[in-house]
Design brief:
By secondary structure, this protein is α/β, with parallel strands linked by helices. Helices cover 38% and strands 20% of the residues. It folds into two domains: 19-265 and 471-491, Aldehyde Dehydrogenase, Chain A, domain 1, CATH 3.40.605.10; 270-459, Aldehyde Dehydrogenase, Chain A, domain 2 (3-Layer(aba) Sandwich), CATH 3.40.309.10. The chain has helices at 3-10, 53-68, 77-93, 95-106, 110-131, 167-180, 195-206, 221-230, 243-255, 280-292, 312-325, 344-359, 393-396, 412-419, 435-444, and strands at 19-21, 24-26, 33-37, 44-49, 138-139, 146-154, 157-161, 184-188, 214-216, 236-240, 260-264, 270-273, 304-308, 363-366, 370-371, 379-380, 383-386, 403-409, 427-431, 449-452, 485-493. The strands form six sheets. Strands 14-17-18-13-12-19-20 form a seven-stranded mixed β-sheet, sandwiched between helices. Strands 9-8-7-10-11 form a five-stranded parallel β-sheet, with helices on both faces. It binds nicotinamide-adenine-dinucleotide. Residues 161-165, 170, 188, 190-191, 221-222, 225-226, 229, 240-242, 245, 248, 264-266, 299, 398, 400, 426, 466, 471 line the site of nicotinamide-adenine-dinucleotide. The site of nicotinamide-adenine-dinucleotide has 28 residues, from helix 8 and helix 9.
């Protein structure tokens, strides 16, 4: 990856974007458009179609027809595999273009975006392409005079609603297993991160995906997202985003056709450091990156540092030093460690949380402010709040920004109690040299993924999904396929 190539792509004009419905580029039915502001400098980058209910319904109809006439599900597995594999290759060939476009739209530092976005998306699509002819139905252990077969069938039309923090990675987590199992999809990107997903969908068509199998409708969640949620022709909703929207989707399902709803929601994940951690210097750096990468806009971010009292001062100082060493700046500069916050609204929300933390007795020992305001972009200094009580707002609610809270504990039981003191349960980490303690913490902390002596980076072979108000269902791994299939029993008298 060279700065020169990035600099050439960063000034490339981006034409106004349309929906992609039934293989056609379509404007909004009322010609409405939304401005796309770049978080790098706050300037208008381009526009995307501001979808209407009519647009969403047209996309759902296209997806339904594509499913019903079996233009995708009816193809031999080897043919579908070839197309999805080709798509993964095209994503890789166009990786830098996709990554830079995405960064101009959402502000993630390019060093991370290149791996986490096209890199990860291509890997995910390839993983499910390879899996699709290796997943078998079952024969049940019945008495000899009957045959019980369990067929795995595609569900039909999948509605996928994606957030703005990692659109390609999270988009691929839904699209890979949904398409591999033969479904049709309508995808709704987030208002502030549509561009790279539209381009990735175009590449799917270039790879040979038939029209109507993957449709993209841009626009506001409250309009096109709601229409999708309430549609009686969508069979499964898969979602990553906030708990507030997740609740609405469950309600839409109840008010319409009882469609299945899978939610991947937020977290308030604890990173728990015991005094016997193998390498405190490395732990401090990893704890810092575990919250500050992508400006904290990571669902599994380790946003609560729980640290044993005996090492509290020295460890917090080391994390502070690691945070201050991070260079926040232009996300398309290879020298930047951390890029921009996605939107001005999100930045203001982050700062509001910091103000409230101060009022509730926390001490801001690092950062706490907006920086680089002169660029017109949305940047925030990595922020550490110490002395946070377990019931403080900042210890309970997800910030989704570069803000780490610190709370001390005296023993294992207190560490577990603090770790489990929120409504969330997405991720967590424990740092210790004591194997038995590590295994006890894995058991006791209520969460979907637990890291030991590291944080983040779990690859596509393992599931990601939360417990409690972090959601249900899993992305990644073969388990993700379960969301996109119906089990059908054939009971045959012999
Ligand atoms: P959000 O819920 O506001 O938006 C997510 C998506 O939902 C967007 O596409 C939006 O347009 C759509 N939406 C909004 N209102 C809707 C409605 N009424 N009906 C249908 N769709 C609607 O969340 P966000 O601010 O974009 O994303 C940040 C949140 O996502 C954070 O809370 C974060 O923790 C969570 N997140 C979770 C994971 C995970 O894997 N669990 C991953 C990334 C982000």
């Amino acid at each position: 990856m060279e700065q020169l190539n990035i600099d050439a792509l960063r000034v490339k004009p981006v034409s106004p974007q349309s929906h992609l419905i039934d293989g056609q580029y379509l404007s909004a039915s009322d010609s409405g458009q939304m401005k796309v502001l770049s978080p790098i400098d706050g300037k208008v980058l381009t526009t995307v179609a501001k979808g209407t209910a009519e647009d969403m319904n047209a996309a759902i109809t296209a997806a339904r027809s594509a499913f019903d006439d079996k233009r995708w599900a009816g193809q031999p597995p080897a043919a579908r595999k070839k197309i999805l594999t080709k798509w993964a290759e095209l994503i890789e060939t166009n990786a830098l273009e996709l990554a830079v476009l995405g960064v101009r739209d959402n502000g993630t530092e390019i060093n991370m975006a290149i791996k986490a976005e096209p890199g990860s998306a291509a890997g995910t699509i390839r993983y499910y392409a390879e899996a699709l002819d290796k997943v078998y139905g079952e024969i049940a252990p019945t008495p000899g005079d009957v045959l019980g077969l369990i067929h795995k069938e595609p569900v039909g039309v999948v509605g996928a609603i994606i957030p703005w923090n990692f659109p390609l990675m999270i988009g691929a987590w839904k699209l890979g297993p949904a398409l591999a199992t033969g479904n049709s999809v309508v995808l709704k990107p987030a208002e502030t991160a549509s561009l790279s997903l539209i381009r990735m969908a175009e590449l799917a068509h270039e790879a040979g995906l038939p029209p109507g199998v993957l449709n993209v409708v841009t626009g506001e969640g409250a309009v096109v997202g709601e229409t999708m949620g309430l549609s009686r022709d969508v069979d499964v909703l898969v979602f990553t985003g906030s708990g507030a929207t997740g609740r609405r989707l469950l309600e839409y399902s109840a008010r319409s056709n009882l469609k299945r709803v899978y939610l991947e929601l937020g977290g308030k994940s604890p990173n728990i450091v015991f005094g016997d951690a193998p390498d405190l210097e490395l732990a401090a750096k990893t704890v810092a990156m575990g919250i500050f990468r992508n400006s904290g806009q990571v669902c599994v971010a380790g946003s609560r540092l729980l640290v044993e009292s005996s090492i509290h001062d020295e460890f917090v100082a080391a994390v502070g030093k690691a945070a201050e060493r991070l260079r926040v700046g232009d996300p398309l500069d290879l020298n930047s460690d951390i890029g921009a916050v996605n939107s001005e609204r999100q930045l203001m929300q982050n700062l509001g949380f910091v103000d409230k933390a101060r009022v509730e007795g926390g001490e801001i020992t690092t950062g706490g402010t907006r920086i680089l305001e002169e660029t017109g972009g949305y940047y925030m200094a990595p922020t550490i709040v110490t002395g946070v009580t377990p019931d403080a707002t900042i210890a309970q609610q997800e910030v989704f920004g570069p803000v780490l809270t610190v709370t001390a504990f005296d023993d294992e039981a207190e560490a577990v109690r603090l770790a489990n003191s929120t409504v969330y349960g997405l991720a967590g980490g424990v740092w210790t040299s004591n194997l038995s303690l590590a295994h006890r913490m894995i058991r006791e902390v209520r969460t979907g993924v637990m890291h030991v002596n590291t944080y983040g980076g779990a690859d596509g072979t393992v599931p990601l999904g939360g417990v409690g108000q972090s959601g249900n269902g899993h992305d990644k791994s073969l388990h993700a396929l379960e969301k996109y299939i119906n089990l059908k029993t054939a009971w045959i008298k012999l």
